[in-house]
Amino acid sequence: MSGDELAEMARSWVGTPYRHQGSAPGIGLDCLGLVRALWRANFCAEPPMVVPAYRPDWRDRISGAALEEAARTLLGALAPEAAGPGDVVLFRFRRHLPAKHCGVLVAPGRFVHAQERVGVVEATLSAWWVRHAAGFFRFPAEPDLNH
Fold first, then answer.
1. Whose CA, among 19, 81, 118, 137, lies 20 to 30 Å from 27?
2. Beta-ladder partners of 105
3. How far is CA 144 from CA 18, 76, 132, in A?
4. pLDDT tens-digit profile of 6-45?
5. What's the whole-model pTM score?
6. Residues of the chain with pLDDT under 70
């Protein structure tokens, strides 16, 4: 799928309820579940890494580190200026802590993410979000299923 197609798919899930550890479009998603669902739609396969259980508030440093490790292992890292529709952005809310949130870019200055108590929404990639970006990543052309 192209980046534009991935972005449109993410947009089609706006309004899906928030569900902790959920990855079922139209039924329930959290931020990581949104990315996992795009992987499944793009490659017609489950992501090759098992997602360990994580707390809703991601307070466990290990789960946040696992999010960054999975992005670096399964997706291609990008310079911020190279990121575009369909690319994944990770967010870190404190400089010294691992990333604990993610979303999908859908247009210049716009992204889709799953927000607790709100659900899947499209939002502006405001200066606040940009300051908290921990990295940008692109889905590979072909998945590496050996991880």
1. 137
2. 111
3. 29, 11, 29
4. 999 999 999 999 999 899 998 999 998 999 999 999 888 8
5. 0.88
6. 48, 51-66, 143-147
User: CB of 118 within 8 A of CB of 30?
Assistant: no
Q: Which CA distances in Å does 25 have to 4, 14, 22, 99? A: 18, 9, 9, 23
Please report the pLDDT score of residue 97 as a whole number: 80
93 residue type, one letter: F
Neighbours of 52 (CB within 10 A): 9
Looking at the chain, which runs of residues are DSSP E strands? 23-24, 28-29, 76-78, 88-91, 101-107, 110-115, 119-124, 133-138
> What confidence score (pLDDT) does residue 57 get?
63
Rounded CA gap, 99 and 114, in Å? Answer: 15
31 contacts: CB under 8 Å, gap ≥ 6: 101, 102, 103, 113, 114, 115
Determine how β-strand 133-138 pairs with β-strand 76-78. Answer: antiparallel
Total count of residues recorded for the chain: 147
Tokens of 141: 């052309």
Within 10 A of 100 (CB to CB), how many other CB atoms are there? Answer: 25
State residue 73's pLDDT score.
78
Tell me how far apart the alpha carbons of residues 79 and 94 are, in angstroms, rounded to a whole number.
20
